[in-house]
Write a structure and sequence with these properties.
Helices cover 27% and strands 38% of the residues. By secondary structure, the chain is of the alpha+beta class. The protein has a single domain (2-157), classed as Aminopeptidase (3-Layer(aba) Sandwich), CATH 3.40.630.30.
Length: 158
């Protein structure tokens, strides 16, 4: 049975492992801001008590930014459950906007978020060059052999 719960201090070692495996670092850079993602608030998705998904976020100025989201196994409803939970939280906090940054190579994320009501708000061309100054672990080539160059800002108005 799939469930979503708040991230706790007991999850920190697992969070660090997930971040390192999926993001090459615990540092996440979005729009020039750097986050130590292992210290952010978040949610964990579990199936029968085993952790299968992680979402971290930051709230600022009536906006909730999804900083990281990972479904350890795809097409099981994990990402959707995490997204539903964070959208509910954003509404409780009276946020006007739910948003995130992905990169131009992340076609799977673009599909996933658009199917769930997110729109592309902006394409920040060649912004990854600046991000690499903060986080040099960002690869040059990403998913599907696509060069990683641009940040794509997606949003859902609440």
């Amino acid at each position: 049975m799939l469930s979503v719960r708040l991230l706790t201090q007991m999850d920190r070692d697992w969070v660090i492992k997930v971040l390192l495996e999926n993001w090459a670092s615990t540092i996440i850079v979005t729009r020039g801001s750097s986050y130590e993602a292992e210290n952010l608030l978040g949610f964990v998705a579990e199936i029968d008590g085993k952790r299968f998904g992680l979402l971290t976020y930051n709230v600022k100025n009536e906006e909730l930014e999804i900083v990281t989201m990972n479904a350890i196994e795809e097409r099981k409803g994990i990402g959707t459950a995490l997204l539903d939970e964070i959208e509910s939280l954003a509404k409780q906090k009276n946020c006007k906007r739910l948003w995130l940054i992905t990169t131009n190579d992340n076609l799977d994320a673009l599909r996933f978020y658009q199917k769930r009501g997110f729109e592309i708000r902006a394409v920040h061309r060649h912004s990854i060059e600046e991000s690499r100054k903060i986080k040099p672990q960002i690869p040059l080539i990403g998913n599907y052999g696509i060069p990683i160059r641009d940040e794509i800002e997606m949003e859902k108005k609440l």
